[in-house]
Amino acid sequence: MRVALFVTCVNDALFPATGIATVTLLERLGVTVDFPAAQTCCGQPQFNSGYRRAAEGLVRHTARAFAAYEYVVTPSGSCAAMVREQYPRLGETSLPKRTYELTEFLVDVLHITDVGAYFPHTVTYHPSCHGLRTLGLGDRPRRLLHAVKGLELRELPGADECCGFGGTFAVKNADVSVAMGQDKVRSAVSTRADVLCAADNSCLTHLGGLIRRQQEPLRPLHIAEILSATEQHPYLPAELTR
Amino acid sequence: MSDTFLGMPAFPQAARVALHNTTLRANLRHATHTIRAKRAQAVAELSDWEQLRDAGRQIKDHTLRHLDRYLIQLEQAVTESGGTVHWAVDADDANRIVADLVKATGESEVVKVKSMATQEIGLNEALAAEGITAYETDLAELIVQLGDDRPSHILVPAIHRNRAEIRAIFTSEMAAWGRAAPDGLTDSPGDLAEAARLHLREKFLRARVAISGANFMVAETGTLVVVESEGNGRMCLTLPRTLISVVGVEKVVPTWRDLEVFLQTLPRLSTAERMNPYTSMWTGTVDGDGPQDFHLVLLDNGRTDVLADAVGRQALRCIRCSACLNVCPVYERAGGHAYGSVYPGPIGAILTPQLRGTTSAIDASLPFASSLCGACYEVCPVAIDIPEVLVHLRERVVDQSGAGHRTESIAMAAVSWALRHPSVLATAERLATTTRALHPRRPPGVRAWTAGRELPELPAQSFRDWWKENHR
């Protein structure tokens, strides 16, 4: 099977490790991965900020970049939700039908929940709002994490509450955004997990920024990086190998 | 809309003040989380919740599409059953009609049933200017009125107050408005309710004029419906001689059958009850029973403008249950006052800018007072896609704004251009990553981010460049 990776602009520029992990994981599962270099941003920041015309340009651009692919896989619930939910309203109806968030692709298309991963750490999972409520990812990410060898999953209290990122909300309403994030970090810390996992690096940029500012003993990590780790090629950040 | 809130600072500034009030945050957190859990349980009991939600949406959409027809039918039915219908274009119009009606009775006092429409038009203040005192009889509205405060929640206007604060307000303020609080009043809920009951009882027995709103108006019979918990509404709707109801035009439903849907969803979504304690329904007047003089003031006040907006009009489906406030993480932290309107929370953020326009600082900031998390849409019993309307209103603000948003518009245009040209993006990323050692940790211009958070560390290489090196 051949898929196009829609890495997203945030992962491209700030979290290449997530993109690399997605490629590693999919290739390990026998999928051929292409990276159409014309891709940039889905247009969500523009659309959600009220710049509809700018967003429409990016919608057309993104649709063209992925026109040749039957499966487009993205390690971001939020960007997948933008394509799935908003693109039809912005005139693009084909790409939404071919776009899959990573955990959705693994569970629904490949029919795999045990990806053969190994991650001997305690993890708590934050289901980001757009994955949870717009895409309806349900327990797919947690089923994937459950099947990871060595991984202990700890329930996150108030998991379905927003972390406070919200795109430009994070700067336009910075005080409320930070207050929401601090509460989310507090409940993640209360699980005493080593890792705060999500399927969206935009949330983790915000939560990670809070975790580092407050020097909490918690590592924000995208689910792709957990699922790509194996016993032969383990995930080895210094602070987790103690 | 009422000018009570005009001149408010924009939402982010008002929210910042609220965030530093630790008592307020604790009160709101406790109250919203308690009711959130109870509502979820009450809704989970319904095996046909999704169908009820869809039926509610359809009934409202159908009625709004034929609003002209149903309002005329309602007017006819109310008139035939002995009531008088008045049409009010805006707040001033409605306030003048009500003040004239009260003055015609020769009374200078009225008792009030809790009503969002009369809060919206600032009726109490307008009546006060005419020498008429309006007494709020809903417990939470009483707390707000005695405390010279503003409501901060649609259903629970005093949600920002805790028991100790309410005890203090009752003890110091009740005497000035009527019967004083009992000596040695404690802050136990039973004692506080008893103090309110004694204080209000003399007003119910004395009042000759009552003012209400309505949750629903049934077009086929001209029947008005008030749904409540405390019984104060029943007192006001039955004891006085004259009853004046001020109701938004969108509250009409075609038939009694339609009530079947809303009388199931409203109590469960608002107070998490299977059924509310008091449902009062009245049709015009009846000789020798209840008010002998009934006036219905149908209020537009911007609603027909909302109706004209294909995306925004779904806000008119709202049945004021407040479920969206109770699940909103932004409301929970910012509190109701920050929204600068009697309609706070997610529904307020889409209703207020549509009713009042987006010209003031507060109104233009409301569509942005959301992380678009979607929790409001998920619980709404009439399926108002609040995130969709928020984004729609953001477009309106962006399109209208002048110098204030100039920098943002230019930046947005430049970034969007670069994003349509992948080679430009790749060059920008390469420039950023290769110079990353030189970047300040807290560069100017991003203080809104760095005030509470660290910036992400730039990687040594973009994904794009990694792919180029490793896969081609």
UniProtKB/TrEMBL annotation, chain A:
Domain of life: Bacteria
One Pfam assignment: CCG
InterPro entries: Cys_rich_dom
Official protein name in the record: (Fe-S)-binding protein
Taxonomic lineage: Bacteria, Bacillati, Actinomycetota, Actinomycetes, Kitasatosporales
Organism encoding this protein: Streptomyces albipurpureus
Domain Cysteine-rich per the UniProt entry, residue ranges: 3-83, 123-207
Automatic annotation (TrEMBL), chain B:
InterPro entries named in the record: 4Fe4S_Fe-S-bd, 4Fe4S_Fe_S_CS, FTHF_cligase-like_sf, Helical_ferredxn, LUD_dom, LutB/LldF, LutB_C, NagB/RpiA_transferase-like
Keywords: 4Fe-4S, Electron transport, Iron, Iron-sulfur, Metal-binding, Repeat, Transport
Annotated organism of origin: Streptomyces albipurpureus
The Lactate utilization protein B C-terminal domain, residue ranges: 395-470
Pfam families: Fer4_8, LUD_dom, LutB_C
Domain 4Fe-4S ferredoxin-type: 315-384
Transmembrane segments: none
Entry protein name: Lactate utilization protein
Residue ranges constituting the LUD domain according to the UniProt record: 73-298
